[in-house]
Amino acid sequence: MMRRQSLFLASLLSPVTIYLGIFFIGPLAIIAVFSLLEPGLYGGVVWNFYHWNYGRMFGWADGVIEYYEPIYLKILWRSMMMAMFTVIACLIFVYPVTFWVSHLSQKRQMFFMFLITLPFFTSLIVRLYAWLMILKPSGIINDALLWIGIIDQPLDMIFTRFAVVLGMVYVMIPFMFLPVYASVERLDRSLIEASSDLGARGWQTFLKVILPQTLPGIAGGSVIVFIPSVGNFVIPDVLGGAKGLMIGNLVEQQFLDARNWPFGAALSMVIMTVVLTVMLIYALKIMRAGQNVGAS
Amino acid sequence: MWGPPDMKRFLKPGWLLLTFYSLIFFSFIYLPLAVIIIYSFNSNPMDMTSWQSFTLDWYRGLFGLAEVGPSLGTSAIYVESTDQLLKALRNSLIVATTTTIISTTIGTATAIAMTRFRFRLRNAYQGLMMMPMMMPDIVLGIGLLIFFVTLGFKLSLLTIIIGHCTFLSSYVFIVVQARMAALDPALEEASADLGANEWVTFKKVLMPQLMPGIVGGAMLAFIISMDDLVITYFIAGTDSTTLPMFIFSMLRRGVKPEINAIATLIILASLIIAVIGLYLRTRQVE
User: Fold this and answer.
1) Terminal CA-to-CA distance of chain B, rounded, Å?
2) What is the per-residue pLDDT across B201-251, written as a single tens digit (0 to 9) for each?
3) How many domains does one find in chain A?
4) What confidence score (pLDDT) does residue B201 get?
5) Residue B42 bridge partners (DSSP)
6) Residue A77 distance to chain B (closest CA, Å)
7) Domain that holds residue A87
8) What superfamily in CATH does domain B74-254 come from?
């Protein structure tokens, strides 16, 4: 009996083990290896240990073959800042709406949840294209502003960092909404009642009662939004132009234009490190929060 | 006890304002989709954003029913791109269908193993299943590219399918696992007590209950596979352009008016699939 059970378990787990072992762990491992190889002269690689790929980014280049180029760190920093702005903007847009939705009748809640998730299922590239049309000098935003008379010349909104962040916010909104909404819906409303009965002002209740209780949802949503934003390359490619370049675009360039795969691999190792660090911090915080709940 | 009216009291001064803001928020979400649909009926061939008059020409052109374009010389390009479009659509459907079958099988098997068995590496597997979803697309994309090229795979539809399954198995896993968690294990125990072996219990008791979760996971996998651009972009061969790649390259080359019609049809198709999927899910809940 036991043997048959473990045979059953093995047959359930073997597909995923084999598949992810080869096609997920394999590629990740090979990026790590490639990031430490010497780039070949005309694309391709030479199988020598070569740490200058990282040196070129972080500043220990020899100055003869490989030069230190601060631009890479600058663009990495910029990408992290843009991802951060995206997180903050998503949160600000979404937070009030989650309260509104959570106070509707059950049926309407379902309906608006449905409305939030629906755009996620429509083509990403089509939605970005739509923003391209909206932000154009002859697009509807400029038309409207001109018509009202706030501006007398079309604004240059397309191919800027603003456009990239706007595009990312638009795409990531469902990912922020769902976790924040989950924590807002679970709010202990008797505490809010008590707080206002005891004479706390609205903003005091918000800061001391509501915000701490929704923090887990905010943290979860922030991580889920930050991670795909920081390494994004499609959104900056479509909406950003040269001014909105992000670290993901650099990786793409190394693979498709410069054909320096080892350097591209090193760049993506950096992205992976940023992402793993964020996840690690998040996991540690959650574990600590769990311990606190357990202790009290 | 603390129904909505009590909360409304807390929020009352701002409730109207909040409602107003929320409705604007929801319009903001749908604005881009509306813009595309409207422009797809605009007859202006030079600048799609300035309205000229209503036309169905772009749709007719897509289906080869009309010669479109400002002059005869350019219309040849449109016809050619329609062929490419249909090929891209076919490629996407092949990839999405195959990917859905493979990733649903892998994801479901793993979800069953994780919820019905206790084993030593369980936590490790849980982490492993989350990794492909959290890994930035571009990292996975170039990882697969180097992997395939180093091992001598030829980039083709097959490599796209392999790439999609690596992360879509995880999506199916999450959906099916959630469904598994809601099931009553007592039914399976009863089946085992009555003398059915694992396979019979699996087929006759577990699978029928699990089916809604599996269908939901499969639909999610299908939609994401149809839509994936980043990973596909790196591991597609020259001959294996998918629909999102086709549109992406159209955006890079400069857009033609017919793109609005294509985009509208894509929006409609994905909305229909999503509405069916979400409808099925809400019906289960009730």
Assistant:
1) 23
2) 888 888 888 998 899 899 999 999 999 999 999 999 888 999 999 989 888
3) 1
4) 84
5) B54
6) 17
7) 70-259
8) MetI-like (1.10.3720.10)
